[in-house]
Amino acid sequence: MIIEKYPYTELKKGNYNGSRKYITPTGEKLPSVTTIISATASEEKKQALNNWRKRVGYAKAQEITTEAAGRGTRMHKWLEDYIKTDDIGTPGSNPYSQQSHIMAQTIIAEGLVNCDEYWGTEVSLWFPGIYAGTTDLVGVHSGDEAIMDHKQTNKPKKREWIDDYFIQMTAYADAHNEVYGTKIRKGVIFMCSKDNEYQEFIVEGKEFDKYYQLWLGKLEEYYTKFI
């Protein structure tokens, strides 16, 4: 169950000048963390994605992406319900719903079991004047204040493949620290594959600092090139 430790406010979203923005309580229209990370992706990462689309075919690539997004949305909803109510609910007869329900159960059993407190789920965060976004979970993980995200994946990931996830978590932590006066320096990713293989990735200490510096570099690049 959630401990309402901070007065979280859900931010509205809208499209402005062809770009999706979060609207803060003071009316600022800010780009999202994911928008900034995507815009500043390396040419190597962009080319790797294009190569994959060519290899599997554009129609198949879209099918895979759409299916993964749907599965992820369902899994997140099961986890959100569990965090709020301690009840994960039942999936019904839809096979995709059943699959995502099993994945959520795995994350609960192997990941959320190590959470001491939940402060909020689907939490809107913003750094005034600069950026905004939504994190899946904020609370205490194994005794440490932490930003936490749930991720679904088609197949297990290697740590070196998910730098962007770590950068994203440092951005959310910095926004939370700025607005709510915390000192979060830990991020946790609970990941489950469609075949129900669980992985957990933690970024903290010097590694957290490294990814935070990468985030600051992306911010500078984004506001230099795109704003």
Descriptive overview:
The chain is α+β, with helices and mostly antiparallel strands. The protein has one domain: Lambda Exonuclease, Chain A (Alpha-Beta Complex), CATH 3.90.320. It has helices at residues 33-39, 43-56, 58-85, 95-110, 163-180, 205-225; strands spanning 12-16, 19-23, 29-31, 115-127, 131-141, 144-153, 186-193, 198-204. A five-stranded mixed β-sheet has the order 4-5-6-7-8, sandwiched between helices. β5 (131-141) and β6 (144-153) form a beta hairpin. The longest helix has 28 residues, at 58-85. It is globular and about 50 Å long.
> What is the C-level CATH assignment?
Alpha Beta
Approximate strand percentage: 25-35%
Structural class category: alpha+beta
Q: What distance lies between the first and last C-alpha atoms, to the nearest angstrom?
A: 41 Å
CATH architecture: Alpha-Beta Complex
**Major sheet details:** 5 strands, mixed
Rg (CA only)? 18 Å
